[in-house]
Specification:
Elements: E1 2-6, E2 21-27, E3 33-40, E4 45-49, E5 59-66, E6 76-77, E7 81-85, E8 109-112, E9 115-120, E10 124-126, E11 130-138, E12 147-155, H1 167-175, E13 188-194, H2 197-203, E14 211-215, E15 222-225, E16 231-234, H3 236-239, E17 245-250, E18 258-262, H4 265-273, E19 277-278, H5 322-334, E20 338-341, E21 347-350, E22 365-366, E23 369-370, E24 372-374, E25 381-387, E26 398-405, H6 413-419, E27 423-426, H7 439-442, E28 452-460, E29 466-472, E30 479-488, E31 493-503
Parallel strand pairs: 6-19, 10-31
Antiparallel strand pairs: 1-4, 2-3, 2-5, 5-7, 8-31, 9-11, 11-29, 12-28, 12-30, 13-16, 13-18, 14-15, 14-17, 17-27, 20-21, 20-24, 22-23, 25-26, 30-31
Length: 504
């Protein structure tokens, strides 16, 4: 699912530059959060993608967007968007509850301060044909407007009018909401603290500002200074250079035994909106049953179902990426496993598998002489032994004696990070690009089942208010819906809709 978001300043109604991060949450019909990601805002705009997972159950879902000052002290939650998730395309018929429109002659409608004129080079196309759409944007006085548009072209079947609200409806709802105080960070935030209470008392608290190293597994290191109390915030521009999952390591000396607590922004939002009123658009309640002849048909859609494939293996060690593999190697040197070599030359690997140790009560003297304590060598095979130590026995009956290859400590990723004094953080969701088929794709002869033909989130008009896009139709013969939202630098907004038909 592709989206475009705009953040406007409450006082001027222009695109706002006060916030740099958008927090996007999606909740299911049981009010459980199924999606929580953050996206970078630039001059009040961002676009992104949401992956609707197979585990999402059918029903009505709510989409909420938040910035650091979008709620403040309000007693209301800004009107959320609504989507419907289905497990079967044929069930689409039963959820279309809105004013019917003749799907083969949908007029071009425009609302808002900006006027958007949509011009098609035809009203009907064949499958896998080239379509060109020209746009003209003017203000309410007919003067060409330099603006940015978000354009979507998708199968009419997926347009649920009762769940759709355009930018104008959201603008009106947001405009009635009082602006409050900042309550969220504008990037990844947290606090560095002294891990030992005893050490904290000795130092009298955090000894001034400290430095943190934040980095991608294969990227260059970046540094940020904390405040004197240890708090920090990694800004948007630094986060934009990092992958979604990145790492933070304190540069402070070991004497601090440092720990990092990263702020749980989702939890803060949950706590803030608890008990608040959720206001829906009037369009959700202004519904009635459609006539059956106006319900879009799903005939001709091809659905491919791929059964799940389960891959199993007998390898006992988890697969690591390059970064965790490096930490694995480090843990081999500094891990808890050890080897005892006795005077008679036998070597046993201790504390590698749970319960397997040659010295249940620690190493000491062997009957033939002193015991050497060695580090295990990766790739070398050792004997491992397990004794019955129940009922307080030092070394009881032999339960198992076998040989195994030492391949390093078998630690979880969380344990590996903790062992190396590293914390994992979540930054911005990765940016995805909507892929349009090329001429070569169209001529390949492969069946194209795409139900979204175009997603262009940042189409700019020229000084004459003109812009155009070109794209190919797929192999779906139906009516396609055009939705356009536009905004200019003065805070004027507008939306327009249209449609065209595709035939075989």
């Amino acid at each position: 699912m592709w989206f475009k978001a705009y953040v406007l300043d409450m006082s001027t109604h222009r695109l706002s530059e006060k916030s740099n991060t958008l927090y996007l949450r999606i909740t299911n019909p049981k009010d459980s959060v199924v999606w929580f990601e953050q996206y970078p805002l630039y001059a009040g705009r961002t676009e992104g993608q949401v992956y609707v997972g197979d585990s999402w159950q059918p029903g009505d879902y709510r989409i909420d967007g938040f910035t650091r000052s979008s709620l403040g002290d309000s007693t209301k939650v800004l009107m959320p968007r609504r989507i419907v998730v289905l497990d079967n395309l044929q069930k689409m018929d039963s959820v279309h509850l809105a004013h019917a429109t003749d799907r083969f002659a949908a007029p071009i409608e425009t609302t808002g301060n900006l006027r958007i004129n949509i011009r098609l080079d035809s009203t009907e196309y064949h499958t896998k044909s080239l379509v060109q759409i020209d746009f003209e944007v003017t203000d309410s006085n007919g003067v060409p407007a330099l603006s940015e548009m978000a354009v979507a072209v998708y199968d009419w079947l997926y347009h649920a009018p009762f769940a759709y609200d355009d930018i104008v409806a959201h603008y009106t709802a947001a405009g009635n909401n009082p602006q409050g105080n900042e309550f969220l960070p504008d990037g990844v935030a947290g606090k560095l603290r002294i891990g030992s209470k005893k050490r904290a008392r000795e130092l009298g608290g955090m000894p001034g500002e400290q430095y943190l190293n934040f980095y991608a597994p294969d990227g260059t290191a970046n540094f940020i200074a904390t405040a004197t109390d240890g708090s920090f915030e990694i800004p948007r521009d630094a986060l934009a250079e990092l992958p979604r999952d990145f790492f933070i390591k304190p540069v402070s000396g070991h004497e601090l035994k440092p720990e990092i607590a990263i702020r749980n922004t989702n939890g803060e939002i949950e706590k803030f909106i608890e008990g608040k009123n959720v206001e829906w658009s009037h369009a959700i309640f202004d519904t009635h049953e459609q006539n059956s002849d106006t319900v879009p048909s799903y005939a001709g859609r091809r659905t491919y179902h791929l059964d799940d494939i389960e891959v199993s293996t007998r390898v006992r060690y988890p697969k690591r990426d390059k970064f965790y593999g490096y930490l694995d190697s480090v843990s081999t040197t500094y891990g808890s496993a050890w080897v005892c070599r006795h005077a008679h030359g036998d070597e046993y690997l201790n504390d590698y598998r749970t319960g397997y140790t040659h010295h249940p009560n620690g190493y000491g003297m062997d009957i033939d002489g002193p015991v050497q304590v060695l580090r295990p060598v990766k790739g070398k095979s050792y004997q491992i032994v397990r004794y019955d130590t129940s009922e307080g026995k030092i070394i009881g009956n032999l339960i198992d004696l076998t040989t195994t290859e030492f391949r390093g400590e078998r630690l979880s990723e969380e344990e590996l990070l903790k062992l190396n004094g590293i914390w994992k953080a979540q930054g911005y969701y990765p940016h995805r690009t909507f892929m349009k088929p090329t001429r070569e794709d169209v001529e390949s002869g492969l069946f194209d089942n795409a139900n979204t033909l175009l997603w262009h989130p940042s189409l700019l008009t020229d000084r004459n208010g003109m812009a155009s896009v070109k794209f190919y139709t797929s192999d779906i013969a139906t009516t396609f819906y055009i939705v356009v939202n536009a905004v200019d630098s003065y805070g004027n907004i507008g939306t327009a809709t249209g449609a065209f038909n595709v035939m075989r």
